[in-house]
Amino acid sequence: MTTFQLANRIQSLSRNVFADMDRAKTLAKLSGLETIDLSLGSSDLAASPHVIEVIQDALHDPTTHGYLLHQGTQDFRKAAAQWYTSRFGVFVNPETEVLSLIGSQEGTAHLPLAILNEGDFALLLDPGYPSHAGGVALAGGQIYPMPIKEENDFLPIFEDIPTPVLAQAKMMVLSYPHNPTTAIAPLAFFEKAVQFCREHQLVLVHDFPYFDIVFDSNSPAPSILQADPNKDVSIEFYTFSKSYNMGGFRIGFAVGNAELIKALRQIKAAVDFNQYRGILQGAIAALQGPQESVQETLKTYQKRRDVFVDALRRIGWEVPTPAATLYIWAKLPHPWENRSVEFCTRLIQETGVALSPGAGFGKSGEGYVRFALVHEPDVLEKAVARIATFLKLEQN
């Protein structure tokens, strides 16, 4: 019998829709069902051979096997700064305005510890990526969910934020192209967000993992620092997981306001060391080497998107064609409106097809499900066929 008590902060993390779905997937596999997992945005595509070769070579170099402190990340930070300036046209100082991360989620989850005091508000998108809320909860902050709705192009309405909340707010978190809704935000929106955060003395955090997964080459996704080139209030997070198919390598970086970078570095120093030096060398190769693989990844997701959207429409499930990301964000058909968790649980139990329920991304996500395009087109069509059978059986 235990005689200790856990911290109160863990209570807000005890209920997790995605953990429940993971258990449902495990039970489906144990029952003998062939599962098709469309619930996680974990790429099935491979990292580029030239990146793997650099990492492989590093494994045989014993000088890479020890702890890596901040100064040891200098080459990576220089490469990230050069890449960023070339890509977005905003100068970044690699010494004071870049920080290497063990995946961007490390940064978004730890940054609230550097910004929030107990009871301070963070303004988060609803629906939004779950780790954003988790970081605020661990920091003892309060969450104000900013609803984003289809009629507003899935952009928040800043004027709707209550004055008492703003008085206690310290940070706003945005993320476009958006997971899960697939929405893209124009530069004019970011300029408005920067001005709003200046006026209300808020830190503006932009999580930016899908910057390359935009299907219209004439409308690239803007960086938040293009709206805040002096980096007065902003910090932006990058990952190699989507563009370079390096999710399992856990490598990312932050760029932005020097004071925020310094504060995040202080939190990081208390929690962990840096990523393995060989992986940093591979990430440099990804940034500086051939970029054809990024375009091939984009083409792959575009083809999958078109096949999947067409297949859903053929079975009578009308969904929009997303302009970005590797997801489909779909309203649930009748009679499943506002029953996203039940729909996804029943679907995996009866067909082996796993989706993410919209309710797992926040209150405003209810009524939707998210499909991740992480299988080849023939597997995606097989998943839709199973969904069609499930919907017919439920209607009868």
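(the above was protein one; protein two follows)
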Amino acid sequence: MSKLATIGHRLYTGEISYDFIGHRRRWYILSAILIAIALISLIWRGLDFGIEFSGGADFKAPTQVNAQTVDSMREALGNSGVSDLDEAIVNTIGDNQVRVQTRTLDPTEEVPKVRAAIADEVGINPDQVAYSLIGASWGGQITERALIALAVFLALVALVIGIYFRDAKMSAAALIALVHDVMLTIGIYALVGFTVTPATLIGLLTILGYSLYDTVVVFDKVRENVRDIRSSTTRTYSEAANLAVNQVLVRSINTTVIGVLPVVALLFAGAVILGEGPLKDLALALFVGMVSGAYSSIFIATPLLAQMKEREPDMKKLAARVRARRAKESQKERVVETPGSAPTAQLAADVAASDAGATDDAEPSNAQPEKASAAAGNGAKPMTVPYKTDVRSHRDGAAKRPQPQNKPRSQRKK
């Protein structure tokens, strides 16, 4: 058996365990810091929306790409005679195409000038330069529909989880984890400066499914562990939930790693090899969302669920019963493990007294346990003295008892 499998088995059986629930304040603080960084990035830098949302003109021209392609194309745009093209986005697609995105241009006067400048730079006919004009209203429609889809998705998630687990608190915890993942993903986009495109929205909706999957796996194990917890005094709800997290920890790590590896390959291909296109935007959203989804299901959703459940009256009573039982067991263990304690000395005295009652002439043997008990009652250090029966006391007692007489009955003393 491999080392990881051995660790997974020990986590599943509870032989080793990490207190995820007990350290929930750490995870809350960490998530608060990450979300604060995301919000600061959104306020400070903002999102770089593509022309699909902001509107503009998109030009594509075939050419042999080299190290000077982007710089020379920017210079050609500056010499085209069209104003306000300093913020134009120029990038390459593969090694045989260049793409230019500009502000919204006038289709009769400005578009022909830009097409001619691009064509002269790459050495082709202006008619071979493909272009498209995108209005800002179309981007607004995409945004509106994306928000509607997100709202419908969240509502369906809350409904499905509520029906499956029959627990509104599980639905609330899962939705909070989903919002956490979306905010982190958007913050990363603002921080690294990637362009927000329709592919980004597709990636955001996709990562919600990954995050929900991880949360449902953990919650299903939690439900199994707390099925009969109200009639038990073995563990509290938080302890049962923490055991569930430990039991699915290795599975969550393996699933996340296996799912993230191909996404990393897509991100590398889109950002490094291709340099532009929807593949890069989609891969980044998937990568950030899958990692944050695995994190939130373990460190956010389950601790939030346990915290909300512990406030219920039934769970408070359960926690009180568990504490009382453990206190009682701890007291018993202290009595057994402490040989010089007063209860032990008293127990020895009671045993000696019961033995003395069984034998009439065992009075001398009771002195030492009584002294030990009295010393324990006066605050002196108790001492346990082993009880032994005095053989001579039995012989003397037997001699004092009436002995059988062997004389004839007529001669016996009456």
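Reviewer note on protein two: The longest strand covers residues 56-62.
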